[in-house]
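# nightly structure sweep
# worker-07 picked up a monomer target from the shared queue
# config: single-sequence mode, recycle default, output format = structure tokens
# input follows
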Amino acid sequence: MYYPAAGSDAHDIELLSRDACSFIHVDFRETEAQIRSQLQGTPGFAGYDLIGLRQVSAAELTPRGWQPSEGLPQMQRPLPEYASPANSFALWAVYERRSTHSADHGADRFSLLHLHAEGVAAYDALYLGNQQQAKYLCIIQPGEGFGDNPYRFTDPEGALHKLVSRNPLGLPDFLVLGGGGLPEFYDQQPCWTEYEQLVTTRRFPSSVGSATLAVWAR
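# output follows
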């Protein structure tokens, strides 16, 4: 699961931990101390205990090094200062389901890798650079309005779609769309037209009342 502009959201894990056990969240808005605190006590991980947490080096993430893909799309506006590569970090957490919860609650264990990075560049480094493919891609409330996202993730002509489409292994099998507002924003027509089959939808309480997640398949 690859989730750029994730912030501190955990709804993807709550929705899909029965089907996925490895989650990658990417964002540049929070400090390492804030992320550590969230990983050690996020309400979205109810029923799980943290059994491991450590820093991950750039060499571990990209053991062959990383050179940006040729023609990597340019940002539509500059990154904010706090998103500087000098402030980058990666934290890897592993959680185990409590014995008081059954398999219906989710996977026995799952891991969450949080990268303090920009989402398009991180996808390039992790997936194209390592010749890998994400099974799920999440675009949930990506901050395209008055937020600080330098790209438009939902735009089929935007940087993220162009880069993901360039992967020789193909697009992710599933696209997870979501956010606040009316459910039909997400469960009627996906923003990326390669995804044609609605698999499931779910409503969650949120700070704006409620949010919808919709899972689409190619």
